[in-house]
Amino acid sequence: MEVSFHREIETLRLGAGDTFHGEGIMAVTKALLQSGVAYVGGYQGAPVSHLLDVLLQAEDLLGELGIHLETCTNEAAAAAMLAASINYPVRGAVTWKSIVGTNVAADALSNLSSAGVIGGAMIIVGEDYGEGASVIQERTQAYAVKSSVWLLDPRPELPTIVRMVEKGFELSEASATPVILELRIRACHVFGTFEASDNRRSEHSSANRFAEPARFDYARLSHPPVTFVQEADKVNRRLPAARAFIRENRLNETLGPEDGDIGIIVQGGMFNVLNGRLAEAGLSDAYGDIGVPTHVLNVTYPLVPEEIAAFCADKRAVLVVEEGGPDFIEKEIGQILRHAELGTKLHGKDVLPMAGEYSPVVVASGLSAFLTRYGRNEAARLDEWVEAVEAHSRTVARDLTAPLPPRPPTFCTGCPERPVFSAMKLLREEAGPVHVAADIGCHAFATFPPFSQGNSILGYGMSLASNAAVSGTQAKRPLSVMGDGGFWHNGLLTGVAGSVFNQDDSVLVIFKNGYTSATGVQDVPSSRPQGEGRGRGLDIESALKSLGVGWVRTVHSYSVSTMRKTLRDALGSGEKGPKVIIADGECQLARQRRVRPAEARAVAEGRRVVRTRFWVDPDVCTGDHACIRLSGCPSLTVKPSADPLKPEPVAHVNNDCVGCGLCGEVSHAAQLCPSFARIEIIRNPNGWDRFRARLSSALIRLFGGYAAPSAPDARPAPHPVPAE
Ligand code: SF4
Ligand code: SF4
After folding, report:
1. Residue 3: predicted pLDDT
2. Closest ligand (CA of 611)
3. Is the CB of 662 under 6 A from ligand 2?
4. How many angstroms separate the CA atoms of 153 and 161, rounded?
5. Ligand 2 mean position, distance from CA 425 (Å)
6. What does the alpha-carbon distance between residue 597 and residue 39 come to, in Å, rounded to a whole number?
């Protein structure tokens, strides 16, 4: 992992009397230390990757506090880690991205929640729901309800977030149940302050270990027959204990005036969006001084029936603001009202949509409909605001975005995964299409133009498994693609072992780029051991061979011709079982983060530094742009042609080029055109460089060509040369 959080980590050492300033996710990290956790772990994924990155870089501080840190290989491992709190009075926290991570962790989570815990156990999930989400749209609430795990959804402001972490551990211990702290993207990144407390050491930790293991107690196992007892215990003891704790500690908040014939019940995490719209209506301000009685659910499961009934008792109607479907909370509130024999009219999904993000405009429209129904004239102000925002959006769409072509997300400049898809595209031209199972990771960008490859995505590391039946029903052998992150997360066992076991006739391409790049460049087991990383350099090829994969080839990612040939061989091989190609090339984002500062230092010290990049000869380029369609590199763009006989714009490599060599490789492999050349830009050139540049210029002039204007430090190579 190449990003440094050392400045932020200093805030984790603040103590009583200090004021913490910073981001929501850092506040959560500090709150964990203030809560006396004995162990932490997790699996990376937006928007909570930051939490794990910071903990990894704060290992010194964790060591001082005796906190054990685990880099889990997937979310199931993280959930299983919480088993320490089943038998021992130690607090622990793990983190992952939801909903996908919760799906992976579901088995361990069910077993954990059945057995229950003695020490506080907390799962911090990044709720990736709504616009900008990178995963399927489902809610963590379903898991909380079905497994009887309490779900905290704090109001996004730092003192509330910190309080909910600290109280969350107490709630977990008071009710013998793990808790989930749900953080939406904006809650992770909200900035603010809170009054810090001292960090606490756990009584037992890696610095003060238990002398003896826990005594054997069958009741702590989630195994029949005690699972029947545990199920009853959830309902008869743990749930009432949780509700009593939530009520007595006022974890939920009732804001605004005590009187009022209408009210709002809102998920804590949605409060800021709601408050902003109330402010537009003149019913609140930026500080949350609300003019409508509002019940904020900082705990969305379990609800506390007495609290809900007391809030609704004197109201004609309440609006439930619950983002996403199904309407778990609204339905339960309806049941509570019925049981309490209250006639309060219930609104929610009748004025707000069942699916999709509750953006400010969506909430404003629903709130306006609710206020209108109950004769509140503030609705008119909201309608005006919605109309103004929509008019502005129409103007932007018409005047700004309309002339621009769609710009799908794509690989970074110089990404090692792009050349593999160029090779696959070239092979498709030659041999026709094959079924391609895509996977989760940066390589999923290949589902967008110019590659448009991929027939299904079934989950992280699941591509090969998802091709099992396809390989048995297709005339042509299917292809699966998977990153090294996905391989270690799930692909090795679920995909490769299953494929060997069943002798599936499939081809798998594993991108060995060295990291889980899509989540912020974290180490995986095969990452090279370096710097502060945890990589152990586990060998993918050995792992494959140990499972009995007989056909394994490792190919340098940027060698398009070799990759195309290897793909062709794999698709035509007579070998039984899976055929695996390891595409070896380091993530360019990670590489540039490492290389650029080192180069800048070398240049400043006056040392000779050579940087390669590519160049298109505008006189040779015909303007058909086949290179762009086969590469998709953001650096490979177009510029107006200076030749009046060539009206089409010519290809042009802009200054972002990192010299990965794909342009030259693609032109060569596709026998496109000779317009590409590799340039070496030499900073702090030595005498030999200057002599060669002058000699080259003189020779070029002698043969009627023109010398490069910056001849002393730029030397065009005569032919495309693949980069190192
Ligand atoms: S982060 Fe790395 S692997 Fe991902 S697109 Fe960028 S260069 Fe490629
Ligand atoms: S060499 Fe070509 S593909 Fe590679 S970064 Fe430069 S322009 Fe992009």
Report:
1. 63
2. 2
3. yes
4. 9
5. 17
6. 34
